[in-house]
């Protein structure tokens, strides 16, 4: 091997050649044109990567020029990274010896010493005491790199465990070396001390894993801790030492002894820390202060239990006060203040500990709890100051990172508020409500926004507590919304948070509907603001849906407000959708079906206006605008339909045989429904190619499926039939259309519901047509194939008679073959659908004689093929995650079909069985187990074990 030869022999290139390489290296670092430097660089890179690279590296290290020597070391690195795979074990040892020899020569002007003659040299302590600064520095670099690299390899691996075994014996020598280097700090050698701190950190992090594996003692390393604590307060050493301790506290707090914690506490509670906290608060800090703050947070997290329980002691009080002070750093959080976010994390940890302690105490209460709670209150007050939105001219300068950071900080404050409610109860809610009154009194809109944000955060925590309701009655009964409606200089964010407040407290308004008018006036006024329309419309929808009965008298005003809204500006589709849904919810609460017709007529006219615009745009060739109008119109219809559904909490009179039937059959009701259907058809017929339109149209239809009595959106079945029948393989979202038909069938699946045989026949005929277009091959369109089989499955068992209809009977064979092919498809969707289909089919019993004969005949013909398809999956072709899917039809078949044993036996020994890893005896044993279980739960495990054996990943199945 070339590398072996170059390492083990003292091969020399011609002096002139090495001199030329050296000159090229020096030219690389000398002034020159970009073209000249580029040519030199290319030439040197080729030399580095050549077969002579090892020799070139070795030769360059002999140069008196430091740049040339550096290039030699760099060449060794490149060769190792590039050619290491081709270096054998013997060459690797020789290479290591060569590199160590060069390291010693470069540092000590000597040569490497053989391991077996070390006994004739001075002890490690004596040698370290006599080492020069450069020798100490180089040795620290070496031991740091070695322990970091060993830490990257698996200690449980047989091949690499030997490296870990060599670490512990070197620990004591490492401690002597680092201790000596730290001692030299008094002579002003800051670099050496800093390198020692970094090396100490690397050794402690390695010791963490070794300590967990019980392969290394921590005691030798712990000797160094007092020395590092001493240098923590030394100028030039603060940042590195603080970062080191913070890292250990975060990842390996068990390293520190009680004495170590006490020593750190003395520093972190003293004047040294006080000065730096003051600098941080005033935004006049340096990196050392930031590092100390991180140490303070890490110490707080690691000792939160002791800090809290010893809260009466001066040291704990002072550390907690410093942690609280860091919540009040000057400047805008994230943009100017980098500390507050980290401080907030500590107070989250602190609060969670208090909550755990409170629950653990049961009926009692720890004696320190009241004092500890006050710190949470203080932290929340500090957080309230930090979440206030800066002026618009400031936020306009923020980049996306600052915006995201500020938003995340507010979300974290929200989490702290929600956690703190468990500790502080209604008192903290009352405190923020009082703050809102004060801010409102002085029109301090920024402070008000921050307070409303906090009240929003607590909305889920307070529930329906009576004391909370009293506070909210006072707040919402105040001039809050009147002032915000009449004032002109309210920041957008304040209004936005107020709108959100109403959405958060919808449940309260259900209990106190007398406060709705002012709130809704404010919301409709906010709809004028483009930036708030979506949020405001959502809040209006939420309030109207929840308080619909109370708002019935105001229905006319709502319709008028919506008409005014449309005259103000161009309203976005999502806003129309929410507001129309809100108005429809009020219409639903009207006392009779007849009374709903007139307001629905008025509401529908708005949709019809949008559809006329849709047609006008289409006529003008503006297809995109036309589609947008049509999509918005369908979304509005769906919102109306959903809002008109009978609420879950409304009792249904089961004895009322004809509930409100006549209203929608008589002329006015019938005409209104016909207009709804016409709107639906105009748009869906015009945009068959638009997935969004098809999706929206499906939502319109589905709103009527859930209803148990006639209504405007309970369309005749023919509407869905036509929607399905008009589709083909080119139609967008074809699967959505088929799933919509399935939803309609599910609604009419029970014996108590109305039969829709004609619709079932249309759906089955369409499925058979699509299967034909797919050439009975599910792989052509897996998603469509899945939906076809799903729809066929929905026909069982109520509409099995349709399978015998002359219109479809000739093509039924294609359905069963298609369902079998889906079962062996590579894609999970058709496989899952086919498994469901066959699971339903094989267990059909108790049907009328002519239907049952058809079912039995199908099983006689396709039972063997179904068994083959199942065994191909179980025999190894299925993925592990698919086994439970294919297990279901097998279990039902074994339980319900008398011929299943013969079918499965034939499938196991047929040419279609995919595995050669199991023999005849194993197959027979497996079949016996399956038949004995008769579809019981244990079948799944038996299938899984057999699948593993068929895959060849187990020694034997027959056990």
TrEMBL record:
Signal peptide: none annotated. GO terms for cellular component: cytoplasm; nucleus. It comes from the Eukaryota. Its main location: nucleus. Residues 40-105 form the Importin N-terminal domain. Pfam families: Importin_rep_3, TPR_TNPO3_IPO13_3rd. One of its GO terms (molecular function) is small GTPase binding. GO terms for biological process: protein import into nucleus. It is found in: Nucleus. Keywords: Nucleus, Protein transport, Transport. PANTHER family: IMPORTIN-13 (PTHR12363:SF33), TRANSPORTIN 3 AND IMPORTIN 13 (PTHR12363). This is Importin-beta, N-terminal domain.
């Amino acid at each position: 091997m070339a590398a072996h030869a170059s390492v083990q022999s003292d091969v020399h290139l011609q002096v002139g050649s090495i001199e030329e390489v050296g000159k090229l290296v020096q030219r690389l670092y000398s002034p020159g044109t970009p073209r000249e430097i580029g040519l030199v660089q290319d030439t040197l890179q080729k030399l580095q990567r050549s077969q002579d690279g090892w020799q070139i590296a070795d030769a360059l290290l002999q140069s008196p020029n430091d740049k040339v020597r550096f290039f030699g070391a760099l060449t060794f690195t490149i060769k190792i990274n590039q050619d290491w795979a081709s270096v054998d074990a013997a060459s690797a040892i020789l290479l290591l010896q060569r590199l160590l020899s060069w390291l010693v020569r470069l540092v000590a002007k000597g040569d490497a010493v053989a391991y077996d003659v070390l006994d004739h040299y001075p002890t490690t302590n004596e040698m370290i005491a006599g080492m020069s600064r450069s020798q100490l520095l180089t040795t620290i670099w070496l031991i740091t790199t070695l322990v970091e690299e060993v830490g990257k390899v698996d200690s449980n691996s047989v091949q690499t465990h030997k490296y870990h075994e060599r670490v512990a014996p070197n620990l004591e020598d490492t401690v002597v070396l680092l201790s000596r280097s730290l001692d030299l700090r008094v002579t002003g050698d800051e670099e050496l001390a800093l390198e020692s701190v970094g090396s100490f950190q690397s050794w402690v992090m390695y010791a963490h894993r070794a300590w967990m594996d019980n392969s290394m003692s921590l005691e030798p390393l712990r000797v160094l801790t007092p020395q590092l604590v001493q240098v923590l307060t030394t100028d030039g050493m603060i940042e590195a030492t603080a970062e080191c301790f913070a890292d250990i506290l975060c990842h390996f707090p068990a390293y520190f002894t009680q004495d170590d914690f006490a020593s750190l506490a003395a520093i972190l509670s003293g004047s040294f820390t006080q000065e730096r906290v003051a600098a941080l608060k005033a935004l006049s800090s340096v990196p050392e202060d930031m590092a100390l703050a991180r140490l303070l947070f890490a110490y707080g997290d690691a000792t939160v239990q002791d800090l809290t329980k010893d809260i009466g002691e001066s040291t704990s009080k002072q550390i907690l006060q410093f942690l609280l002070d860091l919540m009040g750093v000057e400047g805008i959080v994230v943009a100017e203040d980098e500390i507050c976010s980290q401080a907030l994390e500590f107070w989250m940890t602190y609060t969670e500990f208090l909550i755990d302690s409170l629950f653990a105490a049961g009926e009692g209460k720890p004696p320190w709890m009241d004092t500890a709670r006050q710190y949470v209150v203080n932290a929340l007050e500090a957080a309230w100051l930090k979440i206030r939105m800066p002026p618009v001219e400031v936020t306009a300068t923020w980049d996306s990172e600052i915006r995201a950071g500020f938003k995340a900080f507010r979300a974290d404050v929200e989490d702290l508020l929600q956690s703190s409610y468990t500790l502080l109860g209604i008192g903290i809610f009352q405190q923020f409500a009082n703050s809102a009154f004060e801010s409102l009194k002085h029109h301090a809109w920024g402070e008000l926004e921050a307070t409303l944000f906090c009240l929003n955060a607590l909305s889920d925590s307070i529930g329906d507590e009576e004391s909370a309701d009293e506070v909210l009655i006072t707040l919402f009964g105040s001039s809050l919304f009147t002032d915000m409606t009449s004032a002109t200089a309210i920041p957008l964010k304040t209004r936005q948070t107020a709108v959100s407040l109403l959405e958060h407290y919808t449940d309260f308004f259900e209990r106190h509907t007398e406060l709705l008018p002012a709130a809704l006036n404010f919301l409709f006024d906010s709809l004028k603001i483009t930036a708030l329309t979506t949020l405001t419309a959502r809040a209006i929808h939420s309030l109207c849906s929840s308080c619909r009965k109370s708002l019935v008298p105001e229905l006319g005003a709502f319709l008028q407000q919506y008409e005014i809204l449309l005259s103000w500006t161009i309203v976005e589709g999502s806003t129309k959708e929410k507001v129309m849904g809100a108005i429809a919810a009020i219409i639903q609460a009207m006392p009779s079906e007849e009374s709903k017709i007139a307001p629905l007529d008025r509401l529908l006219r708005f949709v019809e206006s949008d559809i006329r615009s849709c047609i006008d745009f289409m006529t003008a060739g503006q297809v995109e605008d036309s589609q947008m109008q049509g999509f918005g119109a369908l979304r509005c219809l769906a919102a109306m339909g959903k809002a008109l559904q009978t609420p879950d909490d409304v009792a249904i009179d089961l004895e009322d045989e004809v509930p409100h039937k006549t209203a929608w059959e008589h002329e006015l009701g019938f005409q209104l429904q016909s207009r709804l259907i016409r709107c639906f058809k105009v748009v869906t017929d015009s945009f068959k190619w638009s997935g969004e339109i098809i999706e929206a149209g499906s939502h319109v239809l589905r709103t009527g499926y859930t209803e148990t009595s006639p209504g405007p959106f309970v369309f005749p079945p023919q509407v869905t039939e036509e929607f399905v029948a008009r589709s083909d393989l080119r139609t967008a979202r074809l699967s959505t259309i088929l799933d919509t038909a399935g939803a309609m069938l599910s609604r009419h699946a029970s014996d108590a519901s109305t039969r829709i045989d004609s619709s079932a026949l249309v759906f089955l005929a369409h499925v058979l047509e699509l299967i034909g277009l797919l050439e009975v091959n599910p792989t052509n369109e897996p998603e469509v194939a899945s939906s076809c089989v799903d729809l066929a499955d929905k026909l069982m068992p109520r509409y099995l008679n349709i399978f015998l209809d002359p219109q479809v009977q000739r093509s039924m064979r294609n359905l069963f073959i298609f369902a079998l092919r889906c079962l062996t498809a590579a894609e999970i969707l058709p496989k899952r659908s086919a498994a469901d289909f066959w699971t339903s089919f094989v267990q059909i019993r108790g049907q009328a004689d002519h239907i049952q004969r058809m079912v039995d005949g199908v099983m006689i013909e396709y039972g063997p093929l179904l068994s083959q398809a199942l065994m191909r999956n179980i025999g190894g072709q299925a993925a592990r995650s698919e086994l439970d899917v294919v297990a279901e039809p097998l279990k039902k078949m074994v339980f319900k079909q008398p011929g299943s044993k013969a079918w499965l036996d034939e499938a196991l020994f047929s040419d279609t069985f995919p595995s050669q890893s199991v023999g005849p005896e194993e197959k027979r044993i497996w079949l016996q187990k399956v038949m004995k279980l008769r579809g019981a739960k244990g079948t799944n495990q038996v299938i899984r074990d057999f699948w593993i054996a068929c895959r060849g990943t187990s020694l034997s199945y027959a056990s």
